[in-house]
């Protein structure tokens, strides 16, 4: 489908569904190196966004993302709420009032989202955070777009790179967030936020491909 407000809404609804399906898995990842609430935080946050989307009224992708941002910031406790909230807010700002997102604008909003997470959380690549999913995703999206990929193909490239990035957090030692308290004991476990980021980007590609 074209990347309109309808797609943006479909994406967020798919996020809610997928994060509900992966709730337990995300909780188990967070149990190993955090406080076992990441699956709960994400499910609750996106369910709250879906409830607001049900009321209607969002006429552009940017408006959908802004509503998503505000709701995640106010309903998700812990680190992930403000980080994802900032990501969606920056994505909304990057898109402005555009009715449809072209391949270059996909790269633009993904880059803005990643930059927002960095501005908020100050993590660098290799710190074992969601940035280790977002940064390869942004790079792969840019490479695909430069090669002439469609918007769906750009999102697919981003999603695949995000999942590879999430897997690649397993041997890393956490240097940001709650997992950093474990020091070397954080190695050997996948970062939960990197995994939820990969799920969210996969949902973007899947809904765009329908
Ligand atoms: P909390 O740690 O407060 O319980 P969550 O469990 O919901 O919050 O989210 C944890 C995730 O947040 C981590 O797996 C990591 O990906 C991400 N995270 C934590 N701190 C940062 C940071 N400074 N920058 C980027 N991501 C971070
Ligand atoms: Mg947690
Ligand atoms: Mg917590």
TrEMBL record:
Coiled coil: none annotated. Residues 194-205 have a biased composition (Low complexity). SUPFAM superfamilies: DhaL-like. The keyword Kinase applies. It holds the Pfam family Dak2. PANTHER family: TRIOKINASE/FMN CYCLASE, TRIOKINASE_FMN CYCLASE. This is Dihydroxyacetone kinase subunit DhaL. It comes from Arthrobacter vasquezii.
């Amino acid at each position: 489908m074209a990347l309109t407000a309808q797609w943006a809404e479909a994406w967020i609804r798919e996020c809610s569904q997928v994060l509900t399906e992966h709730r337990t898995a995300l909780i188990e990842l967070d149990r190993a190196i955090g406080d076992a609430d990441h699956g709960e935080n994400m499910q609750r946050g996106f369910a709250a966004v879906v409830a607001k989307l049900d009321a209607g009224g969002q006429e552009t992708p940017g408006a959908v993302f802004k509503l998503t941002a505000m709701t995640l910031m106010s309903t998700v406790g812990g680190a992930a709420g403000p980080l994802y909230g900032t990501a969606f807010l920056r994505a909304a700002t990057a898109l402005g009032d555009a009715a449809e997102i072209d391949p270059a604008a996909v790269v633009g909003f993904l880059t803005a989202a990643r930059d927002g997470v960095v501005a908020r959380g100050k993590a660098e690549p290799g710190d074992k955070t969601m940035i280790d999913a977002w940064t390869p995703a942004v790079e792969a999206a840019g490479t695909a777009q430069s090669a002439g990929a469609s918007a769906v193909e750009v999102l697919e490239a981003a999603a695949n790179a995000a999942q590879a990035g999430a897997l690649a957090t397993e041997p890393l030692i956490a240097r940001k967030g709650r997992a950093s308290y474990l020091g070397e004991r954080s190695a050997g476990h996948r970062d939960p936020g990197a995994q939820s980021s990969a799920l969210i980007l996969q949902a973007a590609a899947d809904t765009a491909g329908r």
